Amino acid sequence: MKRKAAALGTGALFAVGLAISGMTRPSKVTGFLDLTGAWDASLAFVMMGAIAVHFVAYRVIMRRPAPLFDAKFHVPTRKDIDPRLVLGATLFGVGWALGGFCPGPGLVSAAGGSLGAVVFVAGMTIGMFLEQALARATARAKQQQQHEAVQTTT
């Protein structure tokens, strides 16, 4: 129960921060990306603030032997850049630029009733399901190729 309460509290704090900073308004994102027009630097300040908080908090938290509500920390270990990462980052950036939302602000705005955000979240959800289906199909094809290679050599 503590784990769920902590997740709810953290999510609510994140949502409030997004709303206060104005990051739930697509015009903030598109204004930030409009380098040749009426550029709005406020998103850069929000990002710098988030990076500074993370920089300090990560170092403090990782000194603990374990997280408060789990047996171990789940920190990514991969450091390579592969085509899936590049494609995903590209799609994220294009979606962010076109829709004016990234996942967090999109969810907050959708919960607030913004039709554009609801459409964004629906598209994002469909994209996630399609990526999972593609990843499963790719893994099955790779396993099949490996199985056929073993059959051919024996």
Question: Any overview of this molecule?
Answer:
- The chain is an all-alpha fold and 154 residues long.
- The protein has one domain (2-153).
- 73% of the residues lie in helices and 0% in strands.
Features:
154 residues; extended
Number of domains: 1
Biggest sheet overview: none
Total strands: the figure is: 0
N/C terminus separation: 54 Å
Q: Which overall shape is indicated by the principal axes computed on the Cα atoms? A: extended
- Report the total helices: 6
Structural class: mainly alpha
| SSE string, helices as H and strands as E | HHHHHH
- Beta strand %: under 5%
Radius of gyration from the alpha-carbon trace, in angstroms? 20 Å
Q: Residue share in helices?
A: over 70%
Enumerate the spans where pLDDT stays under 50 for 5 or more consecutive residues: none
Rounded mean pLDDT is 89
